[in-house]
């Protein structure tokens, strides 16, 4: 899954709240870690994926006036890095797709021959977006392989 496929804002189901962010480990660059208030006692496993989000404003259908619920403002998708009894440290589980670069070289001795080399950069982690203590966490239904 790449960053373009993640919706920045989705409708929230308040009953789906699983846990909360207790602490943000700010590394000073894009690979921050977050600690949540759920751990091994709550059944968290290394293959789990979690949506980290904040609650936004209430939405109403412009035609019917029906209350559509509140927004969930997505901060990122995360996976466990370290699971303890009552807490878990999460890191981003999203990656930008690798970039490919094609390099064409002419053979010095044989001008009619051209070599093509494809270099692929390693995938880059999509950073978690502005996660704060108190942000909400819920498990993703579909597990994403990393």
Note down, in words, how this protein is organized.
With 146 residues, the chain is mainly beta. It has strands at residues 9-11, 19-25, 33-36, 50-60, 67-83, 88-92, 95-96, 100-106, 114-120, 124-125, 136-139. The strands form three sheets. The protein has a six-stranded antiparallel barrel. It has a two-stranded antiparallel sheet with strand order 7-10. The radius of gyration is 21 Å and the shape is elongated.
Spell out the key features of this protein.
six-stranded antiparallel barrel, Thrombin, subunit H, mainly beta, two-stranded antiparallel sheet, 146 residues
Short characterization:
This protein has 146 residues and is an all-beta fold. 0% of the residues lie in helices and 47% in strands.
CATH topology: Thrombin, subunit H
- Name of the CATH first level: Mainly Beta
Helical segment tally?
0
CATH architecture: Beta Barrel
Structural class: mainly beta
**Range of strand content:** over 45%
Helices and strands in order:
Blueprint: E1 9-11, E2 19-25, E3 33-36, E4 50-60, E5 67-83, E6 88-92, E7 95-96, E8 100-106, E9 114-120, E10 124-125, E11 136-139
Antiparallel strand pairs: 1-5, 2-3, 2-11, 3-6, 4-5, 4-11, 5-6, 7-10, 8-9
């Amino acid at each position: 899954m790449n960053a373009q496929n993640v919706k920045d804002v989705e409708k929230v189901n308040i009953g789906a709240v699983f846990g909360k962010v207790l602490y943000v480990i700010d590394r000073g660059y894009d690979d921050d870690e977050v600690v949540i208030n759920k751990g091994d006692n709550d059944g968290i496993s290394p293959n789990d994926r979690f949506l980290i989000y904040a609650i936004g404003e209430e939405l109403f259908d412009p035609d019917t006036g029906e209350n559509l619920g509140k927004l969930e403002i997505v901060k990122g998708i995360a996976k466990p890095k370290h699971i303890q009894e009552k807490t878990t440290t999460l890191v981003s589980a999203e990656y930008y797709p690798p970039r490919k670069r094609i390099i064409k070289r002419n053979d010095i001795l044989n001008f009619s021959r051209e070599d093509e080399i494809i270099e692929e950069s390693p995938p880059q982690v999509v950073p978690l977006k502005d996660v704060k203590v108190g942000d909400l966490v819920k498990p993703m239904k579909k597990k994403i392989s990393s």
